[in-house]
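Reviewer comment 2.1 asked that we show a complete input and output for one of the modelled complexes. We chose the S-adenosylmethionine case, as it is the one discussed in the main text.
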Amino acid sequence: MSTRKTTIDHFAIDVETGLRTTPKFLSSKYFYNTEGDRLFQKIMAMPEYYLTNAEEEILFEQADDIRIAFGNQPLDIIELGAGDGSKTKFLLKNLVDNNVDVRYIPSDISSNILAELQSNFAKEIPKLKVITLAGDYFKSLVKLPDSANRKRVLLFLGANIGNLEKKHAVEFIGELKEFLNPGDSMMIGFDLKKDPQTILDAYNDSSGITAAFNINLLSRINVELDADFNIDQFSHWERYNPETGAARSYLVSRKKQKVTIGAIEQTFEFEAWETIRMELSQKYSIKDISELAENAGYKLTEQFIDGRGYFVDALFEIPT
Ligand SMILES: C[S@@+](CC[C@H](N)C(=O)[O-])C[C@H]1O[C@@H](n2cnc3c(N)ncnc32)[C@H](O)[C@@H]1O
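Response of the prediction step:
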């Protein structure tokens, strides 16, 4: 079976499972087709989406400290869900300019964004060796090149970890240890708990880009799975719960309606105002982060925080 066919099968199975569950859900990992990648780049550029500036400031202004924390040795920097790498490049430039022997191995479920990353990096950091791995997180990791005599540093930036429920984050980070040796490390970007209004605004922009990003997944199902979602009959809704730290996006059916997905020959019914859960963006406190490190079997060694205290890139090490 071709890889494309297998990908479509997984997509169809996940969509069917999500729409047969109560309440309905769709996995946010399917947001990132070519249009989704383009919309996410627009989100990163929005003034309300403070996450980009905050993490970029850390990776640019604290690059020397991060390089020193990584240690003076040959490095394999492996990034999970790298996207366009537009923030990571500041750290990688610092490593290359300081003559660190570094290979950069970005992975992403979107082969489109990896191709863009590769072409930009070839122009902007031509001395950097880049090896791209397309696919879901763990499917990419099994294809990693051998890291003999090199320290592995996994990067999981951009608050991607927030897409996992907190208990799944512990399991996920724990399972990553399979790809790391004692002394290797992982740097994780966490969005910190802050003024609830600041958080809500980041996911509920007045220009409607985040709404379009969510709705785009219905359009993708229409095109790739031969479905008939009427996208005008679904609205985006965002909610932030400061008690749990969970920001969640929903699509809400504006009327009672039926949707047929041709590729799986199935029809799904929506009640008026029924929701589809789309994306979780979990916020963390510093205490939550040390508990996560401990529960997943890591040592929290450094925390690089931006000037406003909005975001942290935390270094987790595998104890030697
Ligand atoms: C929120 S964006 C962040 C991108 C980048 N880390 C940054 O900080 O700019 C999430 C990225 O993770 C990728 N992604 C989401 N789920 C994934 C999965 N299950 N496996 C691999 N990549 C995934 C998406 O394609 C997207 O590029």
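Residues 29, 32, 40, 81-83, 87, 108-110, 113, 136-137, 157-158, 160 surround S-adenosylmethionine (CB under 6 Å). We note this here for comparison with the apo prediction described in Section 3.2.
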